[in-house]
Amino acid sequence: MKLLTRKLAAKLQCNARQRAAALGQGRPEPDPLPVVRFFNPLGSASWLATELDEDGILFGLADLGLGCPELGSFALFELEDIRLPLGLKIERDIVFDPVLPLSVYTYAARQCGAIVTAQNKLAMAASALRARQLDR
């Protein structure tokens, strides 16, 4: 599976341009929704990306499974070059449906120590809030 479709790459590049424009004009940086999630199918590593520059460098939240997710840059080609046992590679989460900006995922992941745990807790919280709204 290709890690990035043209559509996803275009959205990531658009986010990068919007961030650069905001910084160039002295406006606050945008806080976009993550566009894509990559993961190690045999481990706990996970990456959420919001931007892609012309050199193939992504920006987002990286969690190598060590309990300390962090914001930063990571190279698309490096993710593509990772070879795992059984012939597996890093995969794109094809059902990833972000509902919150990257800052919220970052905060939750740092509190939980992992992106995946944070995603589960955020989904539970969103579900509980929706149920409350339906009860009203």
Task: Offer a concise description of the structure.
The protein contains four helices and five strands. The protein has helices at residues 6-24, 76-81, 102-112, 115-135, and strands at residues 36-39, 46-52, 57-63, 70-75, 91-92. Helix 3 (102-112) packs across helix 4 (115-135).
Structural overview:
The protein is α+β, with helices and mostly antiparallel strands. The protein has one domain (6-135). The chain has helices at residues 6-24, 76-81, 102-112, 115-135; strands at residues 36-39, 46-52, 57-63, 70-75, 91-92. The chain has a 5-stranded antiparallel beta sheet. Strand 2 (46-52) and strand 3 form a beta hairpin. Helix 3 crosses helix 4 (115-135). It starts with 5 loop residues before the first helix and ends with a helix. The relative contact order is 0.16.
What descriptors fit this protein?
alpha+beta, 42% helix, 19% strand
Helix and strand topology:
Blueprint: H1 6-24, E1 36-39, E2 46-52, E3 57-63, E4 70-75, H2 76-81, E5 91-92, H3 102-112, H4 115-135
Antiparallel strand pairs: 1-2, 1-5, 2-3, 3-4
Helix pairs in contact: 3-4
Which structural class best describes the helix and strand composition?
A: alpha+beta
Q: Please trace the helix and strand order, writing H or E for each element.
A: HEEEEHEHH
Give the percentage of residues in beta strands. 15-25%
**Strand segment tally:** 5
Task: Indicate the low-confidence ranges by residue numbers.
Answer: none
- Give me the side-by-side strand order of the main sheet: 4-3-2-1-5
Mean pLDDT: 93
Q: What portion of residues is helical? A: 40-55%
How does the overall form come out from the CA principal axes?
Answer: globular
Instruction: Report how far apart the termini are.
Output: 44 Å
What is the rounded Rg? 16 Å
Give the tally of structural domains: 1
Largest sheet entry: 5 strands, antiparallel
Number of helices: 4
